[in-house]
Amino acid sequence: MKEKIKENYNILIPLINSLLFDQSTKRELINDKHALSDEFIKAFELVAANDDDQLHYLKEKVNTFLAGLNQSEREHIYVMLTENEEFMDGILIVYYIENKEHHSKSKLDIQVNFLKELHNFTTSGEINRYVLNYFLLYFKALFEFEFSNPLQVTKQEYFKILELFTQRRTLLTKEN
Fold first, then answer.
1. Confidence band, pLDDT 50/70/90 cuts, at residue 90
2. Residue 172 has pLDDT above 50, yes or no
3. Quick one: average pLDDT of 104-113?
4. How many angstroms separate the first and last alpha carbons of the chain?
5. Residue 76: pLDDT band by 50, 70, 90 thresholds?
6. What is the reported pTM?
7. Which residues, at least 6 apart from 16, have a Cβ–Cβ distance to it below 8 Å?
8. Long-range contacts, 155-161 (Cβ 8 Å, 24+)
9. Burial of 58 per CB tally in 10 Å (0-12, 13-18, 19+)
10. Are 88 and 81 in contact (CB under 8 A)?
């Protein structure tokens, strides 16, 4: 079971690379370190200044990543989301509050309708705000990672980031 979870989360490595280096291919770190992209550095600085503009960078990267997934890859995302009980509980509360006038008040109806929206993402690639917000919350912690040098990532830091962001996380998961 743990291997299957890891497989589902490994699909996020291209997104991690895109965020850090502005390219999705796996990085070969020369001399144990590699420069972070200018866009990531700028977004990282905005977080330090408590500026919400960093979310624009993250949102753009996540949207591009999700839009480029094929159906099989979207199925991995679906499994990640639906097997994360903390996410499902939290998002179902938000979904219920936002949609209660459109559906009956049955908890089961709300869950079914939400799963239909996730299914639409899986089958058609239609990115809904719940999927997008999951990844915005999931990767926001990357901008709080403590790099030894704010302009580059060491090999050890890169592998620590991969370890942290290729497993199930909650908002309470310790970053580093």
1. confident
2. no
3. 76
4. 25
5. very high
6. 0.84
7. 142, 161, 162, 165, 166
8. 155/29, 155/32, 155/33, 156/32, 158/20, 158/27, 158/29, 158/34, 161/16, 161/20
9. buried
10. yes
Surface-to-core class of residue 87, CB atoms within 10 Å of its CB (0-12 exposed, 13-18 middle, 19+ buried)? buried
The CA distance from 165 to 159, in Å, is 10
pLDDT at 1: 43
Query: Is 95:160 a contact under the CB 8 Å cutoff?
Result: no
- Rounded to whole angstroms, the Cα distance separating 172 from 106 reads 29
- The tokens 């989301």 sit on which residue? 81
- Segment 13-21 mean pLDDT: 93
pLDDT, average across residues 94-110: 75
* Distances 117 to 3, 26, 60, 167, 169 between C-alpha atoms, Å: 27, 32, 21, 24, 22
DSSP letter string, 59-79: HHHHHHHHHT--HHHHHHHHH
Dist. CA 175–CA 147, nearest whole Å: 12
**CA of 141: how far to CAs of 41, 93, 138, 166, in Å?**
14, 23, 7, 13
**How far apart are alpha carbons 130 and 138 in whole angstroms?**
12
Is residue 159 within 8 Å of 16, Cβ to Cβ?
no
